[in-house]
Write a structure and sequence with these properties.
about 350 residues, six-stranded antiparallel beta sheet, 8 helices
């Protein structure tokens, strides 16, 4: 499906859920709606699905204006945060329900095929209540896939599952979406999930669409501080700076050699991703003395919160590292890996991808 949203707005009473936005989805690809809670992701999806009508603007599907057309008259599949299955039907009947509504043939084979893809084949004769949460969400996903809708909307479908199940299902979804049979919209609060799913990403914040493009491009070149904050986990380190003769001057006489455009403002903000900070020096690095305020191990990474002369920073170190509170640790960053934003928060300089 080719879906275009033209000057879409959504207001509920005195509250604005969506500010005017234009968005044309890349057909037969995955678009991730990325943003914090209450960024407007669900509101936008409901407008796409036809569950809600926009207050202003048009929804155009395959060249036809479908604004205000109810969801039952649209060929759309949707999966929610809370897995929704028919409790009195077996797993097989849940998956088969959209196929039966269309009077299709070969239903049993199609159900078995989808169940095998989502690893729920042994449970086809069970009721949803007899399954775990992860298995029930797989059933809901299989039913949505069975519909073979040209537009598939997934509203944080993995958020209520534990970490291991999320990882497992995320990998499976990436493979299922790779077939390109549907235009897929996937909402998430997690930047990592957007990067893993690839495709395209629309970054949202407080009801505004901030940036849309290929996921790698949006990640490497966020057009503003707001986008950079939304697309960084942990949040990007942001430090005040000023334009200087040879680049950017930070507090405590720390200087970074960065080529600035002539149109730059005097007051700047420097952004450094946590993964770009190191405790081992490389050629060209700038050294900062620091003390450890907190060190926490998450999975295979260690996140170190540091007090430095230019402000508090968070470093993401690969592997398990041991630090003591208050320990003096030099931290290093390379000028080639910093982002520079102007006084309005717009991007001036981004690292080359080779520097990351």
């Amino acid at each position: 499906m080719e879906l275009m949203l033209e000057r879409i707005e959504k207001q509920v009473g005195a509250q604005t859920h969506l500010y005017p936005l234009d968005l044309t989805l890349v057909p037969r690809a995955v678009t991730v709606l990325l943003g914090a809670t209450q960024a407007g992701k669900t509101s936008l999806m409901r407008v796409m699905a036809g569950l809600d009508a926009p207050s202003k603007g048009r929804v155009v599907a395959d060249g036809t204006d479908v604004t205000g057309k109810p969801v039952r008259e649209r060929n759309v599949a949707m999966v929610y945060q809370q897995f929704i299955n028919y409790p009195s039907m077996t797993v097989a009947d849940n998956i088969a329900s959209p196929l039966k509504l269309r009077g299709e043939r070969g239903i049993a084979a199609r159900v078995k095929q989808l169940a095998a893809k989502l690893h729920i084949e042994p449970f086809l004769k069970r009721l949803p209540a007899e399954l775990s949460g992860g298995q029930q969400q797989r059933v809901a996903l299989a039913r949505a896939l069975a519909k073979q809708a040209p537009l598939m909307l997934l509203d944080e479908p993995l958020v209520n599952l534990d970490y291991k199940l999320r990882e497992e299902l995320r990998d499976e979804l990436s493979q299922l979406f790779a077939s390109g049979d549907s235009t897929v919209v996937y909402a998430t609060t997690e930047p990592t999930e957007a990067l893993l799913l690839g495709g395209y990403t629309a970054v949202m914040d407080a009801g505004e669409l901030l940036q849309y493009g290929a996921t790698a491009d949006v990640f490497h070149k966020p057009k503003s501080i707001r986008v950079a904050r939304a697309f960084s986990d942990p949040p990007m380190n942001l430090v005040a700076g000023t334009a200087a003769m040879l680049g950017v001057s930070l507090a405590a006489d720390v200087n970074l050699s960065v080529a600035l455009p002539a149109s730059r403002t005097q007051n700047l903000t420097i952004g450094v991703r946590a993964s770009a900070l190191r405790v081992q020096q490389r050629p060209g690095d700038v050294a900062l003395p620091s003390t450890v305020e907190l060190a926490e191990i998450s999975g295979s990474d260690t996140f170190v919160h540091l007090d430095t002369p230019i402000g508090e920073l968070v470093a993401q170190l690969t592997g398990v590292h041991q630090f003591s509170l208050g320990e003096a640790v030099p931290v290093y960053m390379n000028p080639s890996q910093v982002y520079v934003f102007d006084a309005s928060g717009d991007l001036l300089v981004a690292p080359s991808q080779e520097a990351n």
